[in-house]
Amino acid sequence: MKILVVNCGSSSLKYQLVDMNGEQVLAKGLVERIGLDGSLLVHEKGDEDKVKLPNEIPNHKIAIGLVIDTLVDPNLGVLSDIKEIEAVGHRVVHAGEEFAGSVLITDAVMNALNKCIELAPLHNPPNIMGIEACAEVLPGVKQVGVFDTAFHQTMPKKSFLYGLPYEAYENHSVRRYGFHGTSHKYVAQEAAKMLGKDIADLKIITCHLGNGASVAAIDGGISVDTSMGFTPLEGLVMGTRCGDIDPAIIPFIMNKEGLDINGVNDYLNKKSGVLGISGVSSDFRDIENAAGQGNERAQLALDIFAQRVKKYIGAYAAVLGGVDAVVFTAGLGENSPETRETVLADFEFLGIEIDTAKNKVRGKATNFSKDGSKVQALVIPTNEELMIARDTQSIVK
User: Fold this and answer.
1) Is 279 one of the annotated binding-site residues?
2) pLDDT tens-digit profile, the chain (397 residues)
3) 314 is in an annotated binding site
4) Cα 315 from chain centroid?
5) Residue 211 in marked binding region
């Protein structure tokens, strides 16, 4: 089965064509600047070099059409006929409490996703546009929605409710939803394979560490707690997001800085995190370079980030009643041995002992625990697109 995986942003569209016979990526690419000047498609066929194709791309329907045309192009493509695409899997950010797993797209599902727009006003509209565009360009092809929030719908109320009047949950759906669910699910499953154990028997803490970052507690393959909340702002200090703060800071800063609601939202989401602390960048690579050159604020930003991850690992070990493996994934988690070593320092009391030589890897699946370590420390590159393709295949079949 050949599955097209689509991830739509407001002005972009990422795609992969996956042959599920061997889970091989036949082609992938990115449509940039949809609806803007300078729009183009960047296409990669197998292991060949990327090809840039400038084009006028006013909307997502045209973008999907351009992707399909490229996939069947005699020179650039990998398909002889559009009918070879048997299903489309879509990344959708927010499904509220509607879905605890991936689902076949129907009119009822689309109605539910539209109701969730108020919970994810920046993300759900383009996700929905991508589904509608595929329905027009690929009529009759089954589509599946794979939701960032769905994996965390197994959390109990004691994990997802806030200390607010219960009516905030009943009337306005205010609760912890959690995000990065597709990534957390994928690396937890891969961790079980790496360890040669049934995931049902494992307690795993997964650390998705990138510009956006979150930690999840996974018991027997089931998410029981996660650091992101009602929105992706809660939890870890991130690239530009503040993470956990005292809520009373918000009106205080609004008063001191003369900010309105939009202004303080921008302050917390786009000007905070390691960018705000370091004054250097939101990119951890830039911050690590600056710290290496003696920039004290850059080093402070790295220390604060690592401290926050450490706190969540400790907390989730308590929530799980023990832990069998800690998994690092995403851009920083996969590629920064220094971050992994700092985060796991002094965890010997919990049974985590790392081998610093084994830890010197980037972007490669590795067990960097010392021989005999009670808890395994793993690096597992995430692959959300493959997880979406797997879910899509399972549902369509």
Assistant:
1) no
2) 999 999 888 788 899 999 999 999 999 999 988 888 899 999 999 889 999 999 999 988 899 999 999 999 999 999 999 999 999 999 998 888 888 889 999 999 999 998 888 887 778 888 898 899 999 989 999 999 999 999 999 999 999 999 999 999 999 999 999 999 999 999 999 999 999 999 999 999 999 999 899 999 999 999 999 999 999 899 999 999 999 999 999 999 999 999 999 999 999 999 999 999 999 999 999 999 999 999 999 999 999 999 999 999 999 999 999 999 999 999 999 999 999 999 999 999 999 999 999 999 999 999 999 999 999 999 999 999 999 999 999 999 8
3) no
4) 21
5) yes
Do residue 228 and residue 356 come from a single domain? yes
Residue 98 and residue 151 in contact, taking contact as beta carbons nearer than 8 Å: no
Q: Confirm whether residue 212 is marked as ligand binding.
A: yes
Tokens read off for 308: 């926050």
- Quick check: is 126 in a domain? yes
Same domain, 225 and 365: yes
Question: Which of 241, 237, 230 lies closest to 267, judged by CA?
Answer: 241
Q: Domain for residue 186, yes or no?
A: no
Per annotation, catalytic residue among 73, 148, 244, 260: 148
Annotated binding residue 96 = no
Q: pTM here?
A: 0.91
148 is catalytic: yes
Is 367 annotated in some ligand binding site? Answer: no
Which CATH number fits the domain that encloses residue 93?
A: 3.30.420.40
Contacts of 6 (CB under 8 A, 6+ apart): 13, 14, 15, 64, 88, 89, 90, 91, 130, 134
Distance CA(186)–CA(335), nearest Å, equals: 18
Q: Clarify whether residues 217 and 305 are in a common domain.
A: yes
* Domain count of the fold of the chain: 2
